Amino acid sequence: MVNVKKQEQQHMDDVVAKIRSAEDRDRQDIAEVQEDRRAIQADFSNNVRIKVGTYSGMMETALTVRQQQKLLEERENNWKQASQHLEILEKLEKKPYFARIDFQEEGEPKSEKIYIGLATFADKPDNFLIYDWRAPISSIYYDGGGLGNVTYMTPDGKRNVNLTLKRQFMVEDAKISVVFDTDETVGDQMLLEVLDENADTKMKSIVTTIQQEQNKIIRDTDAELLFVQGAAGSGKTSAVLQRIAFLLYRYRGKLTSSQVVLFSPNQLFNDYIDQVLPELGEQNMLQMTYYQHVQRRLPKIHVETLQERFEEEQNELNKKLKVLKDSLKFFDVTTAYTRYLETNGVRFRDIKIGSEIFFKKEHIRKIYYSFNENYHLRNRLSATKERLIKELNSRINKLARTDEVQKEIQDLSQEQLNKLYGDRPRNFANAEKEMNFLGHQYVMREFQGVHRAIIKNRFININAQYINFLRSVPDLVDLNKFALSIDEWQLHISKVRDNLKQKKLSLTDVTSYLYLYDCITGKRGENDIKQVFIDEIQDYTAYQLAFLKQGFPRAKFTMLGDLNQAIFTHENSHSLLSELGTMFDAKKTKVVQLTKSYRSTQQITDFTKEILLDGESVTAFERKGEKPQLTSAVDEAILVEDVAKCLQKNTADKLTTAIIGKSLAECAQLTEALKQKGIQTTLIKTENQRLANGTIIVPAYLAKGLEFDAVIMWQANAANYNDDSERQLVYTICSRAMHRLDIFATGDFTPLFERINPELYNIKKY
Ligand SMILES: Nc1ncnc2c1ncn2[C@@H]1O[C@H](COP(=O)(O)OP(=O)(O)OP(=O)(O)O)[C@@H](O)[C@H]1O
């Protein structure tokens, strides 16, 4: 192997030398383009005089400016391309490739060897020294089955090859440190090395060690809905980011990063993953949380935050209401209600100027329902708006002609008059036309508010409409089936109404509120978006997913989640899959399961999976570590002392720690107690904060999707986690740990730990 390493290093050195020459060429190109750009600009300011005296002069100037702009744009594009290319080369220079495969294509006389890296590199046309990891042939490196006859997919169909060598390299700064020859998927040894590393505050790409199952997710191009169910730490998020990079490569020219949206669980998570695509040489997709998606449309309404949602009262009635309002049935009920609005029932509001009514709501209603039954909500509304604008204009015109207005115009200063003319050329046919124009402009200014109210649909009383919708619900669905009585429903309506009066909406209501509004206004979905990714799908409701589906009508969906980590939707999460089944065509739906957990040591995974009732399907990746440590005391002060020691130990072992508590209040208390002992930590209070270096203290609902070297679960006592519905939350917290897990509680531990085999952890009681 020593010889092999030497030979491979020699090859790598050759490739690096060629990369460096290509870099030099790129740098030269960039310098030339910059010089060119400067010259064009200088030339322009020296030679172009603005000729505005005559029409032909103006045209000539305009043409020159256009030509110059085009030249500059071209240079700009060249510059951008060369800079991007250079950036990729600079990455390749440090790590040109990480794998080599030798194979013989069926029907080809000779065998080939190729090297696989982050991007394609050729020193001359068709002489590829490095293949992109996303190229069709690279797929065989990731697929299982070992050496011998294997197949891979190309855009033109399947190809067969005889694979004779699969070699992996660990590379740092263009120096090969280890070479592995392997006949497995991607050798465990390499994976072990990668997983043994410490966590960062930023997620890294997994391009060198993508596993076979993950490769399927990454390269799928058929499914309209790709649903990935995977255990905590099984690489769902990693795979999906790689998938985005793959799709951008596969559909280069047809798909751009701005046509891809990723819905993530919180803002912190966005921050955590935002380096992966740039590391892979691609631009980041659009990233947002569901909360941002809805809140940006309702700037004047306070939408319930993650913390409020997490800490809200979970009484029996609220649970039952959620079952109904989060369901697909309720989405259908909303749609049915909007059908009824086609003939009756839309709520309007007066359009006013100050306190004076300009258009009465009764008048608007009359117009709205004056169109025949072929008008649906969208065209009914636009026809109404058209009619209102027409009426507004005719009232303006009438007013404009009155002596009073004409006189007021004559009293205006030149400056005020200029404002009225605006950009309009002053070539009126006669003085009367000019006065009419000025009169119209003059009066129009006063009625701008009315115009805006019409354009922006302000005459629709959406709040009253929403309440009316809720009142109609008992006619549209059998409340008994949801174990709800009419009285309970009425009580709920009055709560929503009170909330709306205070300009507040819960996350459940906000979706049906927006959907109702969209149906009435006929808002079309965002057709530009081609791929939608939803992470942590278990925290979405079927209603929200139906809403997203119709909001992105041309998109393919990839949804990933772990039904065992549903911390907001609890018991509903398992029905989600079947509800999704009715939303998408079964033939175009693909479900992939990931069961192996890569994040944590075997000891941690074996412990955490026992928290679950059906955790058998989770398997640990064999990486050894310490057993989780449970510590309890009656006195909290003793525990804080122990936490401090634990932090010291972690720091000495170069492990960064996250302390995860249940509520924000508890986390804040601990932060303070540690501070008293001179221990500095960062308390993460909201999702809009940054992930700091050093120890952080974070409430559980913000820890979703993140991972840390060491986790301290704070106050895992019976008071905090007492019933079955908390099981998934406890699992989520514990499964954030990569290398070490310590659990503290005052008093008794949560009964959810009772089912765990005591051999799987160490316990200490003060
Ligand atoms: N093929 C792989 N090679 C190297 N590391 C991997 C691989 N797959 C997953 N990992 C690592 O495992 C950890 C967990 O991955 P990831 O966060 O993507 O899992 P997840 O399924 O989204 O987890 P969760 O549901 O708990 O948020 C990460 O550190 C990731 O880098």
TrEMBL record:
GO MF entries: 3'-5' DNA helicase activity; ATP binding; DNA binding; hydrolase activity
Gene Ontology CC annotation, any one: cytosol
Binding site for ATP: G230, A231, A232, G233, S234, G235, K236, T237
Single biological process term from Gene Ontology: recombinational repair
All copies of domain UvrD-like helicase ATP-binding, residue ranges: 209-601
Superkingdom assignment: Bacteria
Key words, A-Z: ATP-binding, Helicase, Hydrolase, Nucleotide-binding
Classification via NCBIfam families: HelD_BACSU (NF041464)
PANTHER family: DNA HELICASE IV, UVRD / RECB / PCRA DNA HELICASE FAMILY MEMBER
Protein's name according to its UniProt entry: AAA family ATPase
Organism per entry: Ligilactobacillus ubinensis
